[in-house]
Design a protein that fits this description.
Blueprint: H1 13-38, H2 42-50, H3 56-63, E1 82-84, E2 91-93, H4 95-107, H5 115-128, H6 133-140, H7 145-151, H8 159-166
Antiparallel strand pairs: 1-2
Helix pairs in contact: 6-7
Amino acid sequence: MTILSSRVSTSDDEFRLNREAYEAVIANLQSRRQLALAGGPLKAREKHLARNKILPRHRVEVLLDPGSRLFLSATGEGFKITPYGKEGQMRFLCRPILETYSKLFRYSELQGVTALSVRRTVISRLYERGADEGQVGLLLGISERSAVRELLSRHKPTIAVLVDELI
């Protein structure tokens, strides 16, 4: 393994200033995150409650069952999830999540990799290890077994092959 050497001197003034600036940015991020987790500024929350409304975060806890999937950004805001496909199909698209996948693939310099190709690979590997459509759907956030089957058809052996394997 190659050992990387560094010329950074942690005792330099420039290093200290960079570290202080970094810590200030992190402190600002943490305070904004705490404000988002609290449901916004105190005045806004009080105004909301004065109108006999439930705060959004509490509304989610009250109205959704614990098994529901809810995609939230790092700041606690919901991602926009849009339905697509034919009428009656339970298919949804979340652009921010797909964009995140694309960035990850691009930064890792994986050529020709898409969210769909990764999803199909995961499904294939799970099937090879004996997972059924329900288990795969649960792991990948796909609510209907038929949607899992459409992504990758599973080879189903004939009864003769199954009997031969048992004997």
